[in-house]
Amino acid sequence: MIAFVRGPVAAVTLNSAVLEVGGIGLELMCTPGTLATLRTGQTATLPTSMVVREDSLTLFGFLDEDEKAVFELVQTASGVGPKLAQAILACLAPDELRVAVLSDDTKTLTRVPGIGQKGAQRIILELKDRLGAPVGHVRAGSPASAPAPWKDQVHQALVGLGWSAKDAESAVDAVAPEAGEEPQVAALLRSALRTLSKA
Prior knowledge:
The protein is built from 9 helices and 5 strands. By secondary structure, it is of the alpha+beta class. Pfam families: HHH_5, RuvA_C, RuvA_N.
């Protein structure tokens, strides 16, 4: 089991990052919020979770240990695999998910692409006693992002989560007034997803 990966960031793509470790480039699947904190050439340390399949070994990278723990825990719910678990974390910070589950808030959970009303109810039922109370962690945004790049990051993330390019563009335009001088990609992505779920 690979608990974490530390090394220079060799590349950042739409949904993954490549970290160089001992001369080997390891690709880690990450949420847009995590990717927004990475810069090519800078050294990063990401907690990781490995998903083993018959035909693949996939490493998922996280912002912190809490996000990793939630990723692994939500997969214990029926019908939640690694991709859906990652989609949940792309839309909701760990504490937001805890609050939604503890308050039986199916509406918040159904904002995640791939989760319907029944799926949300099942997740709440199966995880209510296991996710625990909010721990007070605030997901880091991307204070170093320039105003323009966040639009591309949010747009690409929405397309990667299954929305059409046109819908993604409309959502990016809708949340643009929230960006301010130091746009936080993770927060803007969540706002964009909320906009799309209402449409």
